[in-house]
Amino acid sequence: MKVMEISYPTPLSTLSDIENDNIDVSIKLEDGTNITVVVSTPQNLIQQMNNENVNFISASQPDIIVRSLTYENIQQAIEDYANGDAFWLKLLYVASIEKKVVDMSRINLFLEEMNRLNNELLE
Q1: Which of 12, 61, 65, 110 could make an S-S bridge to 96, C-beta 3.0–4.6 Å?
Q2: How many CA atoms lie within 13 A of 59 on its CB side?
């Protein structure tokens, strides 16, 4: 899906370290959908783990990860997430607003079916 517009509520120019930060990014898609995502750097994720004294990132809305927070990197990542029907962009956004949008019972049924098929292959 085509990305029509990418905007930044906080200008990139205000960031002190483009390799260690995160930023909200607003996206408008060709179907009229407006999405907001968080774009982070790997170093920022490491800093978050250090600040919280943990060895992992807690389960939460996933960020889009880029090497550094530049217009080019962010645009490339967002366009990649928008490929096809923008499934990943839309899923990240709606799941961040309301987890109930994802039907866990259907996911569990699908996983049960996958396990059944895998067991059949192993027999």
Answers
A1: 61
A2: 2
Rounded CA separation 16/52 (Å): 21
Tell me the angle at which helices 71-81 and 87-97 cross, rounded to the nearest 10 degrees.
90
pLDDT tens, residue by residue, 16-40 = 999 999 999 999 999 999 999 999 9
- Amino acid letter, residue 69: L
pTM for this one? 0.83
Distance of alpha carbon 41 from alpha carbon 65, whole angstroms:
5
Three-class DSSP category at 9? coil
Q: CA 100 to CA 7: how far, in whole Å?
A: 28
Q: How many CA atoms lie within 13 A of 117 on its CB side?
A: 6
